[in-house]
Specification:
By secondary structure, the chain is of the alpha/beta class. Helices cover about 40% and strands about 15% of the residues.
Length: about 325
């Protein structure tokens, strides 16, 4: 049986969300493949590791932990993400015997078989990634030439053999020293600065991100298609689906995946009690938005959000 290798970086606080992602991948993965999960471990507790093991009750898979030392990344600039996001800069060194890997962020959920990503032809490039919704804006900020594109680093298909051969880790370290003041999106900016000439564009549905008006007219149809038929959903906004008051796009898909994990099965009552506060929490979110944007009543975006939240039949929640 062929193996598919995925890699995730997480600390203990994000471990349950990583577990949801793993569970969703297992659910949709073809029986022709065995999943191998490589976790760049920023201090995951034994209880969360035991829950990871319980995921094997639905379908067996391999999981390997690689303890990380945050002191190695203490010089890396932080904006709005944790230091764990920098762990993947050492992915070629850590996964030294692996030829190819799919890197996944924790704030994702699979809706299809990721073997489609695994078997994608990189056309001799080092990595494959999806164009970011704000590609043009970020390219201009970083000085990336318009012949390339700025990618979202939440999902990366990496040829690790080429990564090591081209000494990408060393190049990333050098770029980190040179461009520290530019890294608004931390390691994502860094990866784009180093690899913008060596990346292959993946279909948007491989890393489906809800960001209205983010893509230009050239990608409008592909963007809309990626929303209705995503392979992987990526919750890129600060409003994460696991928050009680979340009104994020396609939250229901995340909650459905969450309910297949030990984090839910072992704490059903706690989750149910928490959901009693969802109504007031959602109302509070709208009141805060109204306070910051008092003219929101005249914006279509606001009413679209209201419609998505209150419609019990809407699959878009």
């Amino acid at each position: 049986m062929s193996k598919i290798h995925i890699c995730m970086a997480t600390d203990d606080s994000y471990a349950p969300y990583a577990g949801v992602m793993i569970s969703s991948v297992l659910k949709h993965l073809s029986s022709s493949y065995q999943l191998v999960v490589h976790v760049l471990d920023g201090g995951i507790s034994e209880i969360n590791k035991s829950y990871m093991e319980k995921l094997k009750q639905s379908r067996n898979f391999e999981i390997c932990y690689y303890p990380m030392n945050d002191m190695e990344f203490s010089h890396c600039p932080l904006t709005y993400l944790s230091i764990a996001t920098y762990y993947r800069l050492k992915i070629g060194e850590i996964l030294s015997d692996i030829k190819r890997v799919i890197y996944l962020d924790c704030d994702m959920v699979a809706k299809g078989d990721i073997s489609e990503i695994w078997n994608f032809d990189l056309n001799d490039k080092i990595l494959g990634a999806v164009e970011d919704p704000l590609s043009a804006k970020n390219m201009q900020r970083l000085g990336i030439e318009p012949t390339y594109f700025y990618f979202n680093a939440g999902l990366l298909l990496i040829d690790l053999e080429k990564w090591r051969k081209e000494k990408i880790q060393e190049k990333l370290c050098a770029a980190l020293k040179e461009h520290q003041n530019k890294l608004r999106h931390q390691d994502q900016d860094l990866l784009n600065l180093v690899l913008c000439q060596d990346d292959c564009a993946l279909p948007l549905r491989f890393n489906s991100q809800y960001f209205p008006y983010g893509y230009g007219n050239a990608k409008k149809q592909e963007y809309l298609s990626s929303l209705t038929n995503p392979l992987v959903i990526h919750y890129i906004m600060a409003d994460k689906p696991w928050k009680c008051g979340s009104v994020v796009f396609r939250r229901r898909d995340y909650i459905a995946a969450f309910k297949n994990t030990p984090w839910y099965l072992e704490h059903k009552v706690k989750f149910a009690l928490k959901q009693l506060w969802r109504g007031p929490a959602v109302l509070w979110q709208f009141l805060k938005y109204w306070y910051k944007h008092p003219i929101c009543w005249f914006k279509r975006k606001f009413w679209r959000k209201v419609k998505l939240v209150i419609s019990p039949l809407s699959f878009l929640r």
